Amino acid sequence: MMFDKMMAGINRVLMIVAGIFLVAMISLTCGNILLRFVWLPIRGTFELMGFFGAVATSFALGYTQMKRGHISVDVLFRRFPPPVGRFLDGINHLLCAGFFGIVAWQLGEKGHTLFQTGEVSETLRMAYYPFTYGTAAGCGFLGLILIGRLPAMFLPKKGEES
After folding, report:
1. How much is the pTM?
2. What distance in Å separates the CA atoms of residue 101 and residue 149, rounded to the nearest whole number?
3. Using one digit for the tens of pLDDT, what is the confidence trace for 93-146?
4. N or C: which end of the chain has fewer CB within 10 A?
5. Dihedrals φ, ψ of 63, to 5°?
């Protein structure tokens, strides 16, 4: 219960940041379209859209998982008895948590390399390691949520036979 409240609080902050990046993406796109009419497009729009999109998407992963908004194909799982289905769902959560943990770790390593080398984007000459770290944080947060939900996977749901 405490875990869920803590994750919900962190999630709220991540969703606000994701929303800010989404509004920035919309504003940037609209501004670029309008300014193209006078032949002065915004430099670096493509770069910024990629950076902002990566952060907005990764920060929304945890929220989507908590709301069970990800696509789930359970045609096969429904044929199994509930305990077997819960077990398979738990295995799926464990594998996904492992995958996103590895993704977060590798993105963190990439961000550290970008920070150390001082690599910058091509057009704007802007350091982009903060966006890499942000994306790593979003993926890591999803992994934490998946791990935190593991115990619930093995408990019977309301109205379900064991």
Report:
1. 0.86
2. 15
3. 899 999 999 999 999 999 999 999 999 999 999 999 999 999 999 999 999 999
4. N
5. -60, -45
